[in-house]
Amino acid sequence: MRIMELISFMITLAVIMAYLNHRFFRLQTTTAITLGSSLFSLILIATGHLGFHSLEKTVSNLLQQIDFHDVLMNGMLSFLLFAGGLTVNFQDLKSCKWEVGILAILGTITSAFMVAFAAFFISRWLHHPMPFVYCLLFGALISPTDPIAVLALFKEINAPRQLHATVAGESLFNDGIGIVLFLTVYAALTTGSKVHLTTISLLFLQQAIGGIVYGALIGLLAYKVIKPITDLKVVILITLAVTTGGYALAQHLGISGPLAMVVAGIFLGNQGHTFHMPKKSREYLDNFWEMIDEILNAVLFLLIGLELLLIPLTQLHFIAGLLAIPVVLAVRWVIVAIPITLLRYKRRYLPHTINILTWGGLRGGLAIALALALPSGPYRSVIITMTYAVVAFAIIVQGVTIRHLLHWSDKKAKPR
């Protein structure tokens, strides 16, 4: 199937599911699309077991033509993170800098090792022992909260500003930490070299710090170029150049393209409001990127649901996936509870903030993309299955119920 036919199929199916949800179910859009495409996948699997293999085989062959890792990491990601960065208020982000910094850096690294140790013992209990390095790969890819899933959810449910800024800020920056850790362990696995603190530190400085500085520079450059322009079409073209050329150059330079897009989006969005970008240009820019964000999110979460067709469903994989869900949630609760409890002595939080930050820390397409990048081997399918189980649970179950948790917290916060 040609690329245009693939794109047409994905967008059409995503639009149909979004329309049905809007008309009849009224769930959060990305949650509804993931749920709908997952149910569609399960129906195809069931019909295949009943002897009707043609449709399941057709859709599976279609999905195999799509490199999910490449589509997300080298295609959608730059647009989605830039669009997300545009909506983040820098003052709100600054007000929760301690929470964001602790959770994004210390929390992600600690979570990766805690999940790795848990996966190490679970794999032995299931009589399918994985080397610790593979368990650490799983910990590194599943620990960061996904900025795409989190931003889409918290924007739609209208979460309180403090919570929104904390979760959004953490998710926008902790994926860079997780990716650096994942790439370091992955390099050690494929080359056979030992992982040294110096290697990790240099890679972190190159990827993370380099990406942040580079993102600020291209954001500043884009703002300076856009400011005097009155032609709205040229404004849009400049931002597209940032997300395409800027992201490609970041990869060529060996720095974090995702972090660069986040910083460029935050810088450009806040500069546009602070330094009086013409109102018409700002509204046009915001509306354009909101539409891009909605379209790509719909296609991405559709793909996440359809990937179920390619996930092994043996008893071992099923049990491993089920066990991974509470493990990841428990670790998330621990790494949130400790810093928030300590910070309570100096800051006030809404009731049940720890539970909200735990339950609202969604995993999404980034985790699946990293899992699919693993080399072929006896542990790859188990890691992919565990990753998919955690992501599907996060988007569908946590995504549906977080709104009720927020409403409950809001009622507790109001004086009687």
Quickly list its features:
single chain, 416 residues, mainly alpha, Na+/H+ antiporter like fold, 81% helix
Structure description:
By secondary structure, the chain is mainly α. The protein has one domain: Na+/H+ antiporter like fold, CATH 1.20.1530.20. The chain has helices at 3-25, 29-49, 54-64, 68-86, 90-95, 97-125, 132-142, 147-156, 161-191, 197-226, 232-253, 257-274, 279-306, 315-343, 353-359, 365-372, 380-413. Helix 2 runs antiparallel to helix 17 and helix 4 (68-86) packs antiparallel against helix 13 (279-306). The longest helix has 34 residues, at 380-413.
Short description:
This protein has 416 residues and is mainly α.
CATH topology: Na+/H+ antiporter like fold
- In CATH terms, what is the architecture? Up-down Bundle
Q: Give the helix proportion (percent range).
A: over 70%
Radius of gyration: 21 Å
